[in-house]
Amino acid sequence: MAYWEIDIPTVRADQRSGVQVFTYRADLYPLQLLAKRQARKDVNSADAIRHRRGAKPLVDAIKVIWHDTYEN
Questions:
Q1: Has residue 72 been placed in a domain?
Q2: Is residue 39 part of a domain?
Q3: Which domain holds residue 53?
């Protein structure tokens, strides 16, 4: 199954960097723009904020990667 991987860089108060990753099925989000919009919403969800443990998301630096199939 094809999917979008949306990588959002993060930075902690001590300036350590990281990446928060979101994935969206291509059949539900057929356009890159739709997946990016959803990631911008989801990055502010309670679960995403808790997962980042205080790191600030850098939403202007979103990276989008297309995957043809899901690989384990």
A1: no
A2: yes
A3: 3-67
Q: How many domains does the chain have?
A: 1
Establish if 53 belongs to a structural domain. yes
Task: Write a three-state SS string for the chain.
Answer: CCEEEEEEEEECCCCCEEEEEEEEECCCCCCHHHHHHHHHHHCCCHHHHHHHCCCEECHHHCEEEEECCCCC
Instruction: Render each residue's pLDDT in the chain as its tens digit; 72 residues.
Output: 899 999 999 999 999 999 999 999 999 999 999 999 999 999 999 999 999 998 999 999 999 999 998 665
CA dist., res. 37 & res. 24, Å (int) = 11
Q: What span, in angstroms and rounded, lies between the C-alpha atoms of 26 and 28?
A: 5
Question: Does 10 map to a domain?
Answer: yes
